[in-house]
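User: Please fill in residues for this 700-position structure.
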């Protein structure tokens, strides 16, 4: 049987070329070099799968090297978490190494560079150094300490090492080229003074190497053949090679740096600094909060290692940056869980259902399939009796034609059980339904083979018996942000896009087979989604995290919002043409309510900009969105686009457009000033009373 071979990605092709040109395969060596200053996130998973995947493909060692050169931000907690994440993902490293293992060698090499006139101690302030370094379009100039004598540099550097100077008083810089077009080559920092406790070396060192210096030299000491970094290190490659030039021995393997596109995922942030902010400000409940994109958070939420590895395999390795849709990660998860997660029944929004013709004292155990995707999963027994819980949304007293659940006078099947028919309801004093009364067909039990059991009905409902149900805490998790790119908008804090509904905690009921479920076990709650037993579970309380729904709710929501905006724009035409003021007012109110209901910030911005054109209805739509949406403000729109909107709107033949433009300008002082002359001209020639009234109140 033939199998389709997967084409090589460009890193693999580079390695194949190296081997073809005579590089010995036994000398292939890779590394994964995290900085222990935070927890790993899904972006790191791509690098992990790439490096360890190459190790497996070429039977080559892969080191885990912690680049621990900044004790101000690094902690043992992060080291331990990173190791746990790697093991969970299914990878084993050859050696566990640390940049701090090389501190003495790095120091010795730095002394050698001073002696060779390739490094010097600079005593300028960081502000003066930044000025002296120039700009991308302006060459740097030599600093006042660049030509210190070798002896003075050696004395100062040793004193820095001994802790004789305060932080910020001196740095060691490489002496390269202050006029280089690559600003990283303009005498980059090699060492800075830090009187901080290091998680491995304690207070032994008072100076610490910069990442750019330690990284390549660490690769060299470990004899890494292919040093794989993300694209932001492209400009660093020249410096990487320069540092290697100072120490390279031709008898050894010389590492080469290659760059690939990092993983960018929508509806999240990947910056460690921003993730740390979420933790420190208690916006989330720690690094492993199930809403976080950290590997530990995904694990706690119920993601599988296999689904993450599959996701990284699907997105591949490329040279060009792109944004991956979060729904692809969820797709990989559903695909994996569908094969492995047992099916169980749980009710999250319960309402009591009473089978009136079922004997009061009767109780039976029905057979239920554990997973139809896995023949070896077998069956389990679930209890059935007179009183059950079903989902509140699965019943309507009077239902429309396409409602395929329970209603009065209609039949549905209870999963693994009987066909029931809605008979009546019991309501409280406020008119709320408290009980649903149904009758059942005794001959319709699932799997019995009877004629009644094979009768087709509108739908099938899940349920739990009240007598046997186990109360559980259910944590309904959703995406942490409501915008596709929460940290990409100018002058907007990414925290403004937090999803207020990212966590809802409710009480639900689950079938008794889950009484002994352990933390980390995963289940499909039938018709509801996939759930994972949380670490907070105790003998007295079971806690479930919603991992992912059975369908992509966000894709559905996105399409709904896009369609709603399109349909709303069509309503603009009706509003403009409507002669009756009362009807026009109703249409306008509907338009405004639709605008207010849209959460997608990026979609709103795009719609406003797209409708800035010489069309009265389009201009009216843009102004209405700008005026009524609470998700976007005038400062969020590019000034050029906004000015164009106002200029065209004030010339519009529709008075409604002119009115809205003036009202929007009242909160946009910058454009108000720019367009003051146009507003004055409009005031002289305006015929519409409402527009004139608005203009009169303006201080023109």
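Assistant: Residues filled in for all 700 positions:
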């Amino acid at each position: 049987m033939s199998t389709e071979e997967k084409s090589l990605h460009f890193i693999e092709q580079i390695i194949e070329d190296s081997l073809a040109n005579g590089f010995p395969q036994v000398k292939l060596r890779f590394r994964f070099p995290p900085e222990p200053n935070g927890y790993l996130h899904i972006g790191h998973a791509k690098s992990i799968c790439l490096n360890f995947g190459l190790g497996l493909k070429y039977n080559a060692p892969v080191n885990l090297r912690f680049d621990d050169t900044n004790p101000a931000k690094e902690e043992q907690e992060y080291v331990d978490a990173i190791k746990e994440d790697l093991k969970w993902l299914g990878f084993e490293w050859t050696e566990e190494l640390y940049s701090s293992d090389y501190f003495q060698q790095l120091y010795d090499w730095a002394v050698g560079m001073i002696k060779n006139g390739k490094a010097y101690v600079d005593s300028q302030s960081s502000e003066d150094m930044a000025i002296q370094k120039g700009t991308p379009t302006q060459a740097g100039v030599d600093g006042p300490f660049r030509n210190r004598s070798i002896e003075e540099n050696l004395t100062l550097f040793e004193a820095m090492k001994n802790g004789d100077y305060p932080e910020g008083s001196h740095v060691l810089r490489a002496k390269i080229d202050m006029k280089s077009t690559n600003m990283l080559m303009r005498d980059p920092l090699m060492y800075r003074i830090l009187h901080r406790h290091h998680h491995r070396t304690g207070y032994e060192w008072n100076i610490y190497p910069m990442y750019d210096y330690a990284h390549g030299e660490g690769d060299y000491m470990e004899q890494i053949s292919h040093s794989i970094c993300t694209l932001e290190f492209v400009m660093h490659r020249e410096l990487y090679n320069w540092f290697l030039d100072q120490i390279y021995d031709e008898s050894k393997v010389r590492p080469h740096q290659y760059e690939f596109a990092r993983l960018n995922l929508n509806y999240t942030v990947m910056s460690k600094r921003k993730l740390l902010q979420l933790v420190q400000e208690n916006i989330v409940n720690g690094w492993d909060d199930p809403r976080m994109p950290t590997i530990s958070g995904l694990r706690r939420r119920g993601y599988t290692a296999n689904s993450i590895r599959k996701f990284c395999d699907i997105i591949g390795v490329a040279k060009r940056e792109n944004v991956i849709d979060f729904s692809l990660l969820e797709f990989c998860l559903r695909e994996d869980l569908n094969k492995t997660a047992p099916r169980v029944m749980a009710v999250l929004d319960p309402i009591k259902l009473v089978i009136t013709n079922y004997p009061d004292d009767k109780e039976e155990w029905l057979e239920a399939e554990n997973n139809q995707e896995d023949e070896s999963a077998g069956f389990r027994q679930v209890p059935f009796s007179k009183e059950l819980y079903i989902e509140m949304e699965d019943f309507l007293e009077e239902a429309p034609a396409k409602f395929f659940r329970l209603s009065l006078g209609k039949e549905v099947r209870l999963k693994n059980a009987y066909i029931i028919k809605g008979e009546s309801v019991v309501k409280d004093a406020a008119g709320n339904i408290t009980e649903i009364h149904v009758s059942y067909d005794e001959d319709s039990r699932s799997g019995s083979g009877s004629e009644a059991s094979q009768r087709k009905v509108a739908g099938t409902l899940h349920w739990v018996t009240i007598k046997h149900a186990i109360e559980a805490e259910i944590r309904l998790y959703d995406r942490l942000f409501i915008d596709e790119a929460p940290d990409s908008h100018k002058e907007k804090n990414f925290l403004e896009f937090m999803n207020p509904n990212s966590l809802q905690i409710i009480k639900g009921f689950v079938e008794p087979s889950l009484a002994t479920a352990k933390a980390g076990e995963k289940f499909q709650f039938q018709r509801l989604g996939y759930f994972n037993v949380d670490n907070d579970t105790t003998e007295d309380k079971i806690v479930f995290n919603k991992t992912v729904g059975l369908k992509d709710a966000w894709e559905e929501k996105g399409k709904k919002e896009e369609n709603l905006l399109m349909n709303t724009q069509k309503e603009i035409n009706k509003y403009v043409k409507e002669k009756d003021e009362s009807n026009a007012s109703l249409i306008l109110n509907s338009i405004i309510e639709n605008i207010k209901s849209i959460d997608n910030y990026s979609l709103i911005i795009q719609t406003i900009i797209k409708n800035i054109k010489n069309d009265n209805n389009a201009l009216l739509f843009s102004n209405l969105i700008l005026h009524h949406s609470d998700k976007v403000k005038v400062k969020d729109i590019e000034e050029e686009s906004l000015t164009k909107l106002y200029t065209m709107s004030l010339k519009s033949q529709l008075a409604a457009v002119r009115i809205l433009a003036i009202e929007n300008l009242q909160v946009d002082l910058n454009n108000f000033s720019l367009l003051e002359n146009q507003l004055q001209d409009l005031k002289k020639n305006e015929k519409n009373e409402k527009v004139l009234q608005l203009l009169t109140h303006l201080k023109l």
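For context: The chain has 21 helices and 29 strands.
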